[in-house]
């Protein structure tokens, strides 16, 4: 499985100040959207990416914390899960088929490389917390991602 992955080094990320490794393969995947209200420069957030991966609407996958690392994306649920964020706000806009395809490929790659349990469970953030994340339209597309297994 090939994923068009932009590594931290490629996008100029600062090394994380703190990095905890997952104790085993992730059992759960939590899908988010970034829902940025204003398009200010991302640089100030680059040392504090809480998601394991981010996926652009063109299907490009950006490495956040990466595989096998505890993220900071879903309060109380980070220790055994992988957080993937689609870049954008999906309250009203639908995620692109390119972005969904990339997430599927990423999940398959995670399973084949042993970072994800083959029987992993996929959630939307709103399943686990009091939030609208990942937006109604993306949430409605989650069954397509579950079928990726
Ligand atoms: Zn979220």
Biggest sheet layout? 6 strands, mixed
Q: What is the helix content?
A: 10-25%
Output mean pLDDT: 86
Count of β-strands: 6
Structural class: alpha/beta
Number of H- or I-type helical stretches: 4
Percentage of residues in strands: 15-25%
Bound molecules: zinc ion
The 3D shape can be described as: globular
Unreliable segments (pLDDT under 50, ≥5 consecutive)?
Answer: 38-47
CATH fold topology: Lysozyme-like
What is the distance, rounded to the nearest whole angstrom, between the alpha carbons of the first and last residues? 13 Å
Specify Rg, calculated over alpha carbons: 14 Å
- Top-tier CATH class: Alpha Beta
| CATH architectural grouping | 3-Layer(aba) Sandwich
Q: Write down the domain tally.
A: 1
Describe the protein.
The chain is of the alpha/beta class and 149 residues long. The protein starts with a strand and ends with a helix. A hairpin with a 5-residue loop joins strand 3 (53-55) and strand 4. It has a single domain (30-36, 48-146), classed as 3-Layer(aba) Sandwich (Lysozyme-like). The model is unreliable at 38-47 (pLDDT under 50). The protein has a six-stranded mixed sheet. It is 23% helix and 21% strand. The chain has helices spanning 8-11, 97-112, 125-128, 136-146, and strands spanning 5-6, 26-33, 53-55, 61-63, 81-86, 116-124. Helix 2 crosses helix 4 (136-146). This is Peptidoglycan recognition protein 5. Residues 3-129 form the Peptidoglycan recognition protein family domain. Residues 15-135 form the N-acetylmuramoyl-L-alanine amidase domain. Belongs to the N-acetylmuramoyl-L-alanine amidase 2 family. It holds the Pfam family Amidase_2.
């Amino acid at each position: 499985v090939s994923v068009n992955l932009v590594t931290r080094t490629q996008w100029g990320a600062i090394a994380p100040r703190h990095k905890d490794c997952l104790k085993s393969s992730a059992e759960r995947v939590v899908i988010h959207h970034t829902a940025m209200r204003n398009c200010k420069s991302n640089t100030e957030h680059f040392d504090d990416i809480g998601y394991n991966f981010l996926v652009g609407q063109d299907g490009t996958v950006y490495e956040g914390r990466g595989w096998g690392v505890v993220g900071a994306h879903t309060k109380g649920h980070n220790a055994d899960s992988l957080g993937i964020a689609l870049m954008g706000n999906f309250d009203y806009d639908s995620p692109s088929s390119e972005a969904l395809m990339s997430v599927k490929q990423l999940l398959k790659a995670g399973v084949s490389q042993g970072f994800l349990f083959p029987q992993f469970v996929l959630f939307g953030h709103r399943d686990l917390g009091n939030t609208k994340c990942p937006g109604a339209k993306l949430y409605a597309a989650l069954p397509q991602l579950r079928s990726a297994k």
